[in-house]
Amino acid sequence: MVTVNQAPLTCPDNIVVETDAGEGTANVFWKETFENNTVWNKSAYVTASHTPGDEFLLGNTMVLYTFYDADGIITDSCQFCVTVVSGGMIVGCPRHAIVTSANGMFTNVTWHNPVVFSDGSPRNLSSLKNVSPGDSFEVGVTRVTYREDEDICRFSIIVKDITPPELVHCTQDILVQLQPGETSSEVNWVVPKALDYESEFVCVQSTHSPGDRFEAGLTTVTYTFSDNAGNEATCKFGVHVARADDTHPPNIVNCPESVLNYEFQEREDNYEVFWRTPTATDDLNLPIAVSSSHSNRDCFPIGSTDVTYIFTDVVGNVATCRFEVYISVKNESQERLRFKQCPCDVVKTLPSSNDSIQVLWDDPTLVGSFREISVSQTHHSGDFFKQGRTHVVYTALSVGEVIARCQFLVDVIDSSPPDVINCPSFVSIRACRGSRTANWMEPYSMDNSGNKPDIIFQSHLPRRSLFKYGNTSVTYLFRDSSGNTIACNFTVNLHRNGCNFLTPVILITFAVIIFIVLLVGLCCPCVIVPLILKNKKKDKNDTSPDTDSQKDSNSLDTDGAVGDEDIALESLDMTADVHAQDKVSYENAELA
């Protein structure tokens, strides 16, 4: 048996062609490179889906050659792709992009750059405004344009603001009592305020205004703040007006029975118990202050404990709910190792001037019998705790095994707003011409928790924001890690007081006029000198206000006579550059 090695079948490469301008098809040619191949020569016949010179539509088309032997069996095949694109036309133009901005100011947007085929090869395009995928876009509509000769790809990036305005101040509930004989009362308050990240414009709508009159009962006042994008923030507070003759105490709801019995299986020092918290209502729906000796879920010792709730309305009417909590243990025959008097959870408020607070409690004691006991604790009474929730754990161990545990929570709450440092009260800037920016030492904030508060809003920037002439309100808003906020508000006054308005144009004009006068004096003394002489003569002879003398001196034009006068004449010889002084005497002479 003899084996003849055959040359491998070589197919044409994939083909990319362009159509003529405005055409939707193209004639495509290729060379059948396998004509001299052994497979081709030994095949009885060959079929082809397309042949060189065929017309192809826009897009991708697969071309297939199949080789058969004399028995009709496929011996080999050849396949390649023909791609027809529009000549000179942009391919892959993105659609309009609609995105949202979480911070209300900007967001990053990406897309695939369109391409254009040139000489059969794709080429990326650049936008006319140097906008690239992944750039940051402000809230609003940005149009992106790509151009290749006469072909244009244009789409819009629409960034929507979904962040509502930030409430800077929302009024608390207001309590007012009518005077005898009054049916309504005038109520005033500080108007709530909100700021928007995107723009200074915030539309405000309210159901009531300061100075309105309110009748007895509860009235809800609502302020609605909306920005340019339609996002809304709402401030609601109640105006509670009590009658002058209100003597009705609050109505108590859900006051427990006189005794609440709780029985437990094992003996403990304290037991956490539950009951339905009593509440109270007022006939005018006015707020009611509540104080109590104990709270639901408190810890109680074995035995009897009195619990009292006191409800007081806005005019001082009082209602009281009293009941007894009785704790008993069902089986006390076996005493196990345990911590006695494990403290309940401790809640403290962080002082405004400190970053921590000292917390005290009574240490639990270990009772019962067990061998080789060791006790550990995570914190000690008198330790200082920072803002946040901290678990305090006492653990009793015996040979590495936990026998008893006492655990409670120390919760330090930060309710104080941060402090603002270097908040100016008034900034006055004189701007005669040119830049209308202002500069100031920027305020910053410090918090008693030790964490640096964030700047969550800044209406203007020093050295960057433009100001109008007059007063402009500037606001900084700070927020600490507990969510407490504080604002720094001040006024920037831009004025022209003390400005010298001799502009460079006016100064140059004055200089040109002076230069011309000096130039004329040097070049044309015949004009300047007689004027000087005339003024000197007049000053010399005008020594008396005598009317006759004035008349004689004026007779020159009528009689032709001139009096004896010595006139000192300064003449300037421009040629010799020599100054000479001549004395000329005019005696009585007649004019011809």
UniProtKB/TrEMBL annotation:
Keyword Membrane: yes
Transmembrane spans: 505-533
Signal peptide feature range: none
Source species, domain of life: Eukaryota
Record has Membrane as a keyword: yes
Segments forming domain HYR: 1-86, 160-243, 245-329, 413-496
Keywords linked to the UniProt accession: Membrane, Repeat, Transmembrane, Transmembrane helix
InterPro entries associated with the record: HYR_dom
Region (Disordered): 538-561
Record field: compositional bias (Basic and acidic residues): 539-551
Pfam families according to UniProt: HYR (PF02494)
Protein name as it appears in the record: Hyalin
Taxonomic placement: Eukaryota, Metazoa, Echinodermata, Eleutherozoa, Echinozoa
